Amino acid sequence: xxxxxxxxxxxxxxxxxxxxxxxxxxxxxxxxxxxxxxxxxxxxxxxxxxxxxxxxxxxxxxxxxxxxxxxxxxxxxxxxxxxxxxxxxxxxxxxxxxxxxxxxxxxxxxxxxxxxxxxxxxxxxxxxxxxxxxxxxxxxxxxxxxxxxxxxxxxxxxxxxxxxxxxxxxxxxxxxxxxxxxxxxxxxxxxxxxxxxxxxxxxxxxxxxxxxxxxxxxxxxxxxxxxxxxxxxxxxxxxxxxxxxxxxxxxxxxxxxxxxxxxxxxxxxxxxxxxxxxxxxxxxxxxxxxxxxxxxxxxxxxxxx
Length: 305
Known about the structure:
5 strands
């Protein structure tokens, strides 16, 4: 696989693949950007980086399998929910982006709810999540979920002890209800070390294009690292049920975490190839009496590049 600039004489299919590759490279090069303020900072110990050729080949192979999974979900009218929880800056967003990158947003959608408003805080706790559950033929990815109550709400004291205890009592039965209704529920916890989280937070602080990712809750997660650890351990212990077990993704190496999570996800669902009718592109209908109008030049975006 070449990363060179495409030749103008290349075939259409090769040029399309190059565009496909460039889209991922754009994200990858930006993810690898190190702000000047951090260039001399010792990085936490890391394993050797995965070979770029292997990474891209595996990424595209897994994304092609995810397209097959999507077609199977549509064909069988299956309902899939995938929950992404974990430490702040553990790489959940990067994995979600790669999973959804080639999929139809009408079939596979991401739910990332804001903090509840006054009305929502007065509702049954699970009520605001229920409308986002999938119908037949849909996949829903929760970028954080009802497990906020066991994590940030508990640690930051947005929920009291009684509410947390009620959550732990209710959530196993809620998830069993989802299972009985035909929803396949898959839960991932993304884990990183204290040192790696600190480094990633520093990159966000010093990079203007990443500062939006850093919230006041993220800063508190540094102060309350051990509180979050205690909360996580109890959450995993009390909500790891056979109908919806937890799976832990080690996230210190972003690229490996993406591939490992995507590969594991595909193994959780018994999808198969869906037969398709041959598609034939119809001929364009031409009207000899039609004459294309000449539009004013100021309607066009300037060709600056």
